[in-house]
Amino acid sequence: MDKLLSRASALVGLGPACTPSITFSDESSRKRVTSYKDGQQVLVFTDKDPVAGEVTLKLDPGKRLEHMGVKIEFIGMIEMFYGNYHEFTNLVRDLDAPGELTQTKVYQFDFASVDKQYDSYNGINVKLRYFLRVTVARQYSPNVVFEQDIWVKNVQTMPEINNSIKMEVGIEDCLHIEFEYNRSKYHLKDVVIGKIYFLLVRLKIKHMEIEIRKRESTGSGSDLYNESETITKFEIMDGAPVRGESVPVRLFLSGFDLTPTYRNVNNKFSVKYYLNLVLVDEEDRRYFKQQEITLWRKEL
């Protein structure tokens, strides 16, 4: 009787589910990063890299599973904080026709020319992710679904134009400073070098600091939402400056979790970075000047 019940369950699709897994063909030679999803380690790919490997559907010995087909998808998706999902890439490969699994089975897959023009991104209100999804379709039971993320980083070319930044700011008859940075565009391992010149000081300045601020913008028009966070801040001067004094700035970018500047990614979000110069007086009033910089990826 038990055997008859087991056979009947399998025939109507109620048998045991299989356990899918994905192995990439070149994973031993690829770099890994910690992703946004459960802190797992995922493989790094670039836009030019093929995504290929094997899908294994594991069945326990003696078990069987009827299915309506097996497929694998390569998906690029933007996930917004308010629950909206936007797929910008979806390629499908059929791995198996409807049938019955009676033992563990391995399938080959290859997405040789899939578009990966955008970098993976894990932000405050938006995520951009690439992942493979294996689906074992079943007629009378829930489908068996397995997802495996990858991380995409793309190397960019050096900007042809990279002018220095030089500006004068101040408060009339109270404060006049001039600041300059050696460039306006920096790669992620670069060093920001600059100087702050005090041309007029009639405020009792207590200290001065510089910040790297990140601004993430999602949506557009009336639905545009900006979220800012301070990546780092450090003090570059302690004590009151005098007229004619200059303060050097040297900021190493390699120690921070930065991404390239992203502008209007798939018409869904942008990410910009700013150098924020902050002066604090003896009454803890803050005076600041913000300057946008462009970040780009020189190497993986």
UniProtKB/TrEMBL annotation:
Gene3D superfamilies: 2.60.40.640. One of its GO terms (biological process) is intracellular protein transport. InterPro entries: Arrestin-like_C (IPR014752), Vps26-related (IPR028934). Belongs to the VPS26 family. This is Vacuolar protein sorting 26A. It comes from Guillardia theta (strain CCMP2712) (Cryptophyte). The lineage of its organism: Eukaryota, Cryptophyceae, Pyrenomonadales, Geminigeraceae, Guillardia.
